[in-house]
Amino acid sequence: MSNVTIDDLMNMLNHDTEEEKRKILKAYELASKLHHGQMRESGEPYIVHPLSVAIILASMHADADTICAGLLHDTIEDTNITKEDIAESFNKDVANLVDGVTKLAKMNFSSKEEQNLANTRKIITGITNDVRIIVIKLADRLHNMRTLEHKKPVKQKENALETLEIFVPLAYSIGAYGIKGELEDLSLRYLKPDIYKKTGDKIQKITELNRAWLEDMRANLLQILASHNIPSEIKLRIKNVYSIYKKMEQGHKLNEIHDLLALKIIVENLLQCYETLGFVHKEYHPLNSKFKDYICSPKTNKYQSLHTTIFGPNDTLVQTQIRTTEMDKIATYGLPAYWDIYGADAREKMQEELKSKYQFFTSLVEINQAFGDNKEFIDQVKRELFANRIYVYTTKGEIIELPYNATVIDFAYKIHTDIGNTMIGAQVNDEFVDVSHILKNKDRVKVLTDPLSFGPRSEWESLAKTTHARRRIREFNKK
Ligand code: MN
Fold this sequence. Notes:
Layout: H1 6-10, H2 18-34, H3 48-59, H4 64-72, H5 75-78, H6 83-89, H7 92-100, H8 112-129, H9 131-146, H10 153-173, H11 177-191, H12 193-227, E1 233-238, H13 241-249, E2 261-267, H14 270-283, E3 292-293, E4 306-311, E5 317-324, H15 325-333, H16 337-342, H17 346-357, H18 359-370, H19 374-386, E6 389-393, E7 399-403, H20 408-415, H21 417-421, E8 423-428, E9 431-433, E10 445-449, H22 460-463, H23 467-478
Parallel strand pairs: 2-5
Antiparallel strand pairs: 1-2, 3-4, 4-5, 6-7, 8-9, 8-10
């Protein structure tokens, strides 16, 4: 039994004004009153759940409205309060957020399945309305998964599967690796308890076997960096159980996973990352083929870090990750880290960057417009955004995210509609290819255009994998 109290939450609110604190307390009192008498399956009073969700949000330094919404997130669904009531007692934002995480009522649907599909769509598209909706939803799911032991086995498996299919990809999309990893491990624990335990035990054993020399290495690096006036923090990072299970499922052996154990070096600024890299390589030889610069070429979910695999002492390869404090916050929390980094400007900046810098977002908006039917919408999102993706380079070295099996056509339209409409072929890694060519991870792609081209042929539509390209081709051919 957990025994969280409102004091635990209030003690976390160091960044909030007195007025904001009063508002959060008011939300707690209202939620307590409304859920009074309701129990969780664990036997605890229901309020423990929204309070825990609010605490998860507060740990990300969420704004006061979001924390209020976290406290009230189940009230519209489970009590007799309405969205209008919340707007009146708090404000429109809080009401919108609570409404955004509220399930659509049964009475609007002819079957349970229809209701479920509509609700899944609502969860996925909530982000197009306000990014904070998905963050509250992820915190909600995280607490439910942490307390899943109290549910019946059938429900446990059902929730774990839904978590892997919907919430894990959503967490990845906004770069929230901390939440993603925990949700994955909790899901595996209920879906494949034996594998979860066996893999977990093995990881623990390997960690124990290697801890001593890794600690030596850590101390050595700390000292080298300190002697060059680079203040740093070095943590031992152990890959999560689910990621290792996935790699082993793909046929890798445990001793072939070189990033199972990694040293994470956190420094103050960007230049120090590269200085640190130099000192690391000077001390331990790098495995050149394994070097990655995600600082200058961030992942499409904005993850930034340098990764280098080095020949450690003890004849073992070790991955080293080098990043700034800010990059580390984004790597852990993803977009929600903006609350911590940008304070009062966070909300606007989150929504703005989501639109301009997160490639999945524009694709999601497009799929949402293209598919009226809920089942078709969800299937397309799973195929195009949640399944395996590939990352290819433009001629300028920018990274473009595409679904697995995407073609040159998808690439061209993702760059610009005019490029797609005037494309006559392409060069992939310097070789000439047809527009139907299927791209692979890390390909370099140059689209060849001719302003006098006939435009996209209608059969391109079926060769394209992305909704965006298909719609543009259809539009062109309608004219
Ligand atoms: Mn809930």
